[in-house]
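Deliverable D5.2: sample structural annotation.
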Amino acid sequence: MPLDAPASLRPSRALATILVVEDHEMLLEVLERTLVRAGFAVLSASNGVEALARFRAAVVDLVVTDMEMPQSDGFALIGALRHERSDVAIVAISGAERVLRDPQSVEKLGVKALLEKPVSGTDLVDAVRRALPPAA
């Protein structure tokens, strides 16, 4: 997290700020709760367009994104995030067979982990902790 970030955009006691992007509302809520319980500050978005706007408006340490969404899928979102900030850590989640059959397509984007839905809370938190930069 940049040291020159305004205090209002930095989490006061959280380990890091995570942006969670998921188009299924119930799953989004579960992912959010899991990460908050693990000590992270969490922002959320239900699609790639909304996610990019939230990413631009805050200091985000890591993005957890679904790969199959309306209004800009995970592939398009990751490309846009990399354009904004090439070093942002990303964890992808997917239940889509086409993504899971070809994990190299996600790995080529610099994604730190690809988790299969349904995602366990333990697997999510472990992947996030491994993917975060050391200073986060």
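Annotation notes: Residues 1-12 have pLDDT under 50 and may be disordered. The beta strands are 17-21, 41-45, 62-66, 89-94, 113-116.
The annotation will be released with the project's public dataset once the embargo ends.
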